[in-house]
Amino acid sequence: MKESKPVVRIAATARYLPDDVLANADLERMVNTSDAWIRERTGILERRIAPKDMTAADMGERASLAVMEKTGIEPSDIDLIIVTTATPDRWLPSTACEVQSRIGAARTCFAFDLHAACTGFLYALSVAEGQIASGRCETVLVVSTEKMTSIIDWEDRSTCILFGDGAGAALVRPSDDDKGILSSYHRSDGDMALVLQRPAGGTAKPIDEEVLRNRDHLLRMSGREVFKSAVQSMARAGSLALEGAGKTCDDVDLMVPHQANVRIIESTARYAGIPMERVFVNLHRYGNISSATIPVALDEAAEQGKLANGALVLLTAFGAGLTWGAMTMRW
Ligand code: UT7
After folding, report:
1. In angstroms, how far is CA 172 from the centroid of its own chain?
2. How far apart are the first and last CA of the chain?
3. Which of 62, 84, 99, 175 makes a 20 to 30 Å CA pair with 15?
4. Do 198 and 53 belong to one domain?
5. Which residues are known to be catalytic?
6. Of 143, 176, 209, at which residue does a domain stop?
């Protein structure tokens, strides 16, 4: 089957990770856990922690400026900024407008936040693809930035060991050759909303003294349920995205999955029929940075020479909502 011509491609990526490292040994002093348990059950060795006064927009700004510098793109060249985050600077206005102002693109483009938890980057790529395909935009800046440590319950050992902070950015442009997005498959399941949530802080349960006492403004997760759904959904989405591009698992040069737990990644890869030698993993150093995991991973994979020109890349993601998705692209 002849490969269909992509409409858009990722022209460049960049990342920003805060300097401060929180190792498993540090967590041993905070909650009843052990380095051995965290390594064995998650694969995570350490994660980055943003300083108290560093926001999602601060990290997004750094990743954005880095990707603009790489490509020589001026602020006025950008037509749309999409920020994906589960940890916005504030509820109103969007973090995207904040990033727009910081990078000097105010008034010359439009900007909005897209909230799909850990799947945000893939959803945003699809929105960017649609905007460019329609002819409304030519250059879209997708910025995934997360300060997960700001919504973690540091007394809950089942979640506080998992997450970290950081940002990744991608510049999405029209494709003029065979490089770019070939297919995508995205789904969500609102029936499963409560397995991964922040119960309070929104209109359903505004913050009051009781909420603060019960710590309901912080992240809550039924880890085992999320784990099971993650593997099934990402493996299926991956297979369907490959089918959509007329490809099989044998064609995949590199799978870049959402980095939540190495056991989830290994099981997903096994179900999808992709050996681990062709799977990119960096969660041992960063933990789960929610929607930022994939752009950060892509940027590192490219830097390490793991994304050859013309490589077939499979992206898979999964997160709260529940949301999930997969994409194939020729790099
Ligand atoms: O981006 C998407 C969002 N999140 C995820 O993808 C996370 C999905 N879930 C997971 O990664 C895993 O379910 C966890 C890492 C959260 C938990 O691993 P698990 O193998 O599913 O453990 P479990 O929840 O079944 O718990 C097993 C035991 C429990 O003790 P008991 O009840 O058997 O005595 C837990 O209390 O492990 C205990 N436990 C811990 N022990 C030491 C849970 N967290 C810890 C910990 N240290 N940090």
Report:
1. 16
2. 19
3. 175
4. no
5. 118, 258, 288
6. 176
Q: Whose CA is nearest to atom 29 of ligand 1?
A: 158
Residue 22 belongs to domain with CATH number: 3.40.47.10
pLDDT tens series, the chain, 331 aa: 677 889 999 999 999 999 999 999 999 999 999 999 999 999 999 999 999 999 999 999 999 999 999 999 999 999 999 999 999 999 999 999 999 999 999 999 999 999 999 999 999 999 999 999 999 999 999 999 999 999 999 999 999 999 999 999 999 999 999 999 999 999 999 999 999 999 999 999 999 999 999 999 999 999 999 999 999 999 999 999 999 999 999 999 999 999 999 999 999 999 999 999 999 999 999 999 999 999 999 999 999 999 999 999 999 999 999 999 999 999 9
Q: Which two tokens stand for residue 113?
A: 């936040």
User: Which domain range does residue 24 map to?
Assistant: 8-176
Separation between Cα atoms, residue 183 and residue 312, nearest integer Å: 11
- Element (H or E) spanning 314, and its range? strand 312-319
For residues 294 and 63, give the distance between their C-alpha atoms in angstroms, rounded to a whole number: 13
The reply to whether 37 and 117 lie within a common domain is yes
- Whether residue 1 is contained in a domain is answered as no
Task: Report the alpha-carbon distance of residue 169 to residue 148 in Å, rounded.
Answer: 17
**Which residue, of 116, 143, 176, is where some domain finishes?**
176
Residue with tokens 């269909």: 4
Give the burial string for 162-201 (b: 16+ CB within 10 Å, else e): bbbbbbbbbbbbbbeeebbbbbbbbebeeebeebbbbbbe
Kind and range of the H or E element at 166? strand 165-174
User: Residues with beta carbon inside 6 Å of ligand 1?
Assistant: 33, 37-38, 41-42, 118, 157-158, 161, 196, 221, 223-224, 226-227, 230, 260-261, 264, 288, 318-319
122 and 211 co-located in one domain? no
Ligand 1 centre and the CA of 38: distance in Å? 9
